[in-house]
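Forwarding the complex inputs:
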Amino acid sequence: MLDVSLKHYLLVAALMFAAGVGVIISRRNAIAVLCGVELILNAAALNFVAFNRYSAPSGRLDGQVFTIFIIILAAAEAAIALAILLNLFQQTNTVDVDEADTLRE
Amino acid sequence: MDIDFGTIMFFALALVAVVPAFMVVLARDIVRVAFWLLASLCGVAGLYILLGADFIGLTQVLVYIGGILVLILFGIMMTSKDPLRQKAGASGQRSVVTGLVTAAIVFAVLAAVVLGVGFEEGKGRSDGSPTTTALGEALLTDYVLPFELVSVLLLFVLCGAAYMARRRREDAHA
Amino acid sequence: MQNSIETARRIVAEGMSGIIPEILLCALVCVLLLADLFIRGIKPRTTAWIAVLGFVACGAALIARNGVHAEVFGWQQADGMRGMLLNDQFAWFFQVFVLATALVCIPMAMDHAAFRARRMGEFYALLAAATLGMFLMASATNLLMAYLGIEFASMASYLATAYDKRDRAGSEGGLKYVIYGSVASGIMIYGLSLIYGMTGSLHYTDIAQALHVSAATEGQLLIAAILIFGGFAYKMAAVPMHFWCPDVYEGAPTPFTAYLSVASKAAGFAVFVRFLAAFTAHGGPTFTGFGGMEFEASFGWPVIVAAAAALSMTVGNLGALWQTNVKRMLAYSSIAQAGYLLMAVAVYAAGHDKPNGGDLAPLVFYFIAYFFMNLGAFHVISVVGSRTGAVTVSDFAGLGRRAPWMAFGLGVCMLSLLGMPPTGGFVGKMQLLQTAVENNLVWLAVLAGINTAISAFYYFKLLKSMYLEKSAGGVIQSGSANLAVLALLVAPLFVLGLAFSPIAEFSRGFGF
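Prediction (whole assembly, three chains):
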């Protein structure tokens, strides 16, 4: 019968990564792009935990520690992105990555 | 049939993680994007627990879902007047198709990589014991330097974000 | 339990002495944030001097660390220490480099028009935090530490880019920087997770050993390498992750643009080269392919790096041709410079395990020249921009008459960036071309030559505007402090260009 193994988890992570890339390619709204980034980060974190479970040297938790740092840094990054976004919104009333284009000449 | 409980759980949680991830690509408006993301993150939290990473699973729920996602929802509420009508910035059918095609190509490449021979199985941490103690020890011994440094990072990010989001009027007289 | 508390105590006690400069930077961040918070009406000048003091103290501690070769903070394994950071000469050079850049940026920030009569403590705190992040990038010897260092530097940079809240261009630049930056780092850590899966470790030494015997195929390594290179290229501002560069450089406050273009790029190269050295340490796993021929899996890296170098210089120089905004033009110029620098890394990746190969001296020498010429250029742009609001090339018309020394300094920096004798840029570029030719990358050297010719158009466009075009504007008072900084940045370019052999000798000491 079907045994769940490392490959299954890796495939789930690969699908999430692909979905995240799809979001980033197709969306222009800064918050939606951020959601795509969260999907990519989760894919990487899932990879780390799965590798830790199946193929790391026994007893070590390097992959899980890395995942904790991914989660912390993702939170910090989201806070910065939304703070800058809020400041920009107060100036321009737009959250569109491409519409914010006074810089493009 | 000898399908065990773990296998059923895996496929259920994998569906919860992956299907909403693709709904994030397809969703009509920005609020639905955020809620599909919520579902996907819950699925991943379940997968962590299934992998024996109980602490990470709970951190995912607390920090990711309770923190980051709430932050994103706040961001949506504060930057749009009618979020349910606000297009999530996908300018029509074509960009969704572009997104899906790109996703398919990326997945094909990554699937070829992860199904390859480079990843060994057999070792790993599989005793299934709770990880909180072990993680705490790792964070205060082997990984004590990044653990301390990340607190400095959170400090200046907090101050910087507060500075950014502070009302303009207060800033003007400073 | 008691045992692990003891272990924790021992690790901290042993490690502390190895990270004194980093601790001083942490303290500086906290002091600046607190000073801003608790001292009412603290003057920007005061916070700037606190920052200078902190950086100088850090520099003293860093100089005391010269010559040290030690891994700190980690765990003991049978065959040696597995540290988080590796303090060696390579890290030392880039740390001094980043710190010097931060120090030069403080007088620029003090002079910057948009920064006057504002609370500046947070800006200098972010500058210190970014510097700390780049210290970690230069010495990280563990994937987690490299990732943390990159994010540390990035997050401080995102906030500093958008620091002028009234400036819409700054906010837009900051938003683009943070969004694309998180995409790049997300893609990078997915690649890092694959490396962890192949090797079961996060430490470079273990990764190098495990890759040597790994069953991973070249295809797998190549995809992982491409994903990881995305993240590094973002910090180096190299193709394919260069597109943020013009918007961010234009939007950021000019003193911080200067910092980004010099320190951030150097730290990006440092973390990349160290990673590359681990990845290719044993030449990678050896495969027996067609007809029993043996070839190495590390072949992917030189190809990736050489391709990125070729594309960076071409895209950068062609993009710069159409720019009218000076900061945007220098952004494209810095993409092109990343291309020239990557040329040295490509040579290194191709041959560092072979005799006579793997020389990092050309990279180090070019970075020393790049420090002076790019900071000098941004210094003039900042000073002139603060006084006249000049942003476009035509705004610099007649600068040769209006501010002769400033125009002269900018002119020298332009010639050096172009690679004309008798400046340091010429010697640096000659060394880069020579090593490329010696190591069978003739096509890349030829492309760099063609690119240099292309770049002459836009560097000379600025020179022409300054000296040949008339303007009605009056004389600009540059201030003696600014002229002194300019002299300190421009004079070494002639030293590097004329009496280069001691510096070339000096730059040899920073390999692995």
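Residues 5-115 of chain B form a domain with the Four Helix Bundle (Hemerythrin (Met), subunit A) fold (CATH 1.20.120.1200).
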